[in-house]
Amino acid sequence: MARSKTSKKWLDEHVNDPYVKKAQVDGYRSRASYKLIEINEKDKLIRPGNIVMDLGSAPGGWSQIVAPMVGKKGRVIASDILPMDSIIDVTFIQGDFTEESVYDQIVAELDNEKVDVVVSDMAPNISGVNATDQYSSMYLVELALDMARNVLKPGGNFCAKVFQGVGYEEYLKDVRSSFNKVVIRKPDASRPRSREVYIVAKGFKH
Q: Domain boundaries in the chain?
């Protein structure tokens, strides 16, 4: 099957992407690792000893970064619909966290402890219909925010990938209502033409 111009463009971009190459050299599972590294350098979200929840974690690019950051005294609980190869010191729960049984499994893993940081790099399966994709992605980040509100310690942090478009401003307002400080980041590893930005929220008001 002939590749469409768009997918060929994406493939060329992907193959020649300095972050894709860097990830291969550094042994990271995805170029997304560099997004979190940069955000954390600026915003100091994750510290040694933290309990971190990684939503939409496959293939594991973020968990790979977080596990060494929190160290042996910290914990990483990751979840995704897709399978993810195991990572040392990361507990992975496969399933759709929008389903109660999976959600309960994640919460049970916390064993009544509260979380210091919730990170989400989730994106929906892209249908190609912009409006549909935007609604799907907003739905996911709203669920991630719900999860954060349920599990975060007072003063905890939240970081989620969001696509600018319908619902974005309202979502930002909603996040601001629950956190003391909210900033928008567009990491260098984000492709310039992508509408993705990262909402970084600190100081959860319980």
A: 30-204
